[in-house]
Here is the input.
Amino acid sequence: MAGVSLTGISLQVLHTPSTSSLANTTDDNRRGLCRALWGWKFCDSCEASGACALVSCPRNRIPSLGRYFGHYKELVCSYSHDLEYHRKDAVVSSHEEIFDVIRILKEQPNITRDALARQAFRDPTNMGMESEQEHVVGLAVKALTMVYSTHWLKQNAEHDNGDLVSPNWMKDVPFHEFLEGLFPMTDHPGFGEDSSSSFWELKSNITGSKLIRRGGLTFAPTEDLSNHLKLNRRTGVIEIFHYTAFLKENLRITKYIKEAMGIEESIRLGALPRQLALEALDSIQKIIFPLSDPSAVTLLQRLVVDKNFDEDCLRFEASAIRQPHETNTRYLYFGARLADIYDELENPTPRGFISRWAKRKGAGHANIATIVAVVIALIFGLVTLGLGGFQAWISWQQWKHPIDG
Here is the structure.
């Protein structure tokens, strides 16, 4: 088979029509994706006519997943634009073949990327197709876990905040070990204890409005769950993984499972670890943008409009996705990042010229106001001196050239 070389394309290119059948995602494709990911079972009416007759049918949740399906379509389009019209040697040529890769990942979460290629593709040894195989695997991984496993997809992300150091899934690494490396657990003091006094104090100090007003920080959407709550101290940007409907579907799968499961066991069910999904969801809806606070809701609504955040961020759900005791969340995956944000609020990174100069001189951020006052006083002093000199010159001119009466 003849190989194809994948080259970087911009998202603008994805808006041009593609000749590949993969470029179109239909309602059947969306339902097929939900079956492959989360094992959805649709009612008989859905299967027969596409019109749902039961309130309990999962098809009723498809509208809330609109942003997630839109992201999946962009991922598929990024692949289909590299295919020639009706090319026969493409690694995959249908959505169902992508779903098959997802099913293999679920059934064998300990599989290596090399073994996955041998099992999933017709000619895994063709070196000319290796980059295309990596692209398809990355697409399946992203659909299942919402993390990037290949730099190619990362560079073509809709919201790319400059973090291109995310690791690739190497050929000889089991899938679950790759994910464990992305999400290490650390019991961070303060955020690791859900009932401690320090937890409530830290939590109340890092709401979105305070981070903007006191810290001069801003928020940007990210499509990579592993980048959630990452703070870029140089730019003052906090990345927010905003696909909350996706997180809720993961939580529905594991709601009735009592024992704690690791990444490998969770992936077999088509879900992220429950603790991970809860932390990501609650850090948005209970800490950064607490939906009980009208000002936080207003801020989140503005981000939905201005920054294209998923509108589902504004929908709080409890009984459908939470166990009775899951009211306060410990932060074992994202505690260190929350603490990093809190530290930035307490010890802001200098970003303006005066702030950086003060930092270099060792004056500290607390003395910036004093420095500004000294500069202003110096300016006023120079202006006063200039006016005094001008008045002296006028007086000297009047003495030297008196006006005869």
Observations:
- Residues 197-346 form one domain.
- The chain has three domains: 11-182, 197-346, 353-386.
- Residues 1-18 have pLDDT under 50 and may be disordered.
